[in-house]
Amino acid sequence: MSLRHALLGLLVFRPGSGYDLLKMFNTSLGYVWPAKQSQIYGELTKLDATGLIKVTDEGPRGRKQYSLTPEGHTEARRWLAETEEHRPQRNPMLLQTFFLGLLPREEAVARLLRHADTMAEEYDELVALRDSEAWDKDALTECGRLVLEHGLRQRVLEQEWARWAAEQLREGHPAKPPAQDPDTPAPE
Fold first, then answer.
1. Pair 113, 163: CB distance under 8 Å
2. If DSSP codes are grouped into helix, strand and coil, which group holds residue 53?
3. Residue 155, φ and ψ in degrees, nearest 5
4. What's the N-to-C CA distance of the chain in angstroms?
5. Exposed end of the chain (fewer CB within 10 Å): N or C?
6. Is the separation of the CB atoms in 29 and 62 below 8 Å?
7. pLDDT digits (tens, 9 = 90+) for 10-24
């Protein structure tokens, strides 16, 4: 998936300014596909240049309202119908977990438990979002609720895994870091 297709998808449902689209990312899409303001505005400029969207209104301070063109709508539908993403997920926590043996056991356990706590906090935030919205307004919000449910379930899974992994480390034998090269200074 790309930012380009996320923006096209949002514009299928309603026209919006860069600010409107950024707000949608910050309150919903950011959980699954984060984007910065500069990325969104840069991609809107590219989409406009390729004819997939067009500026339909300009307001004060250069505010532009974007709408999807027929070509943009066709591209959004093509992406949904024809493109299946099978790329591996990047997960910084799992990457760190792979190397937790470099830390003293108690620090490694604490790191995993902090991750579990973070997932619990994010779960609570998602529950608050779920409970604050009417999820039957339109197809965008109905499908957004499906994504939100994935986020809720993922946070529960990660909490359970992190607590399990911490317990595994607690019960295991102390891990020894790899032998250090004698020419390399010891960490302080």
1. yes
2. strand
3. -65, -40
4. 43
5. C
6. no
7. 898 889 999 999 988
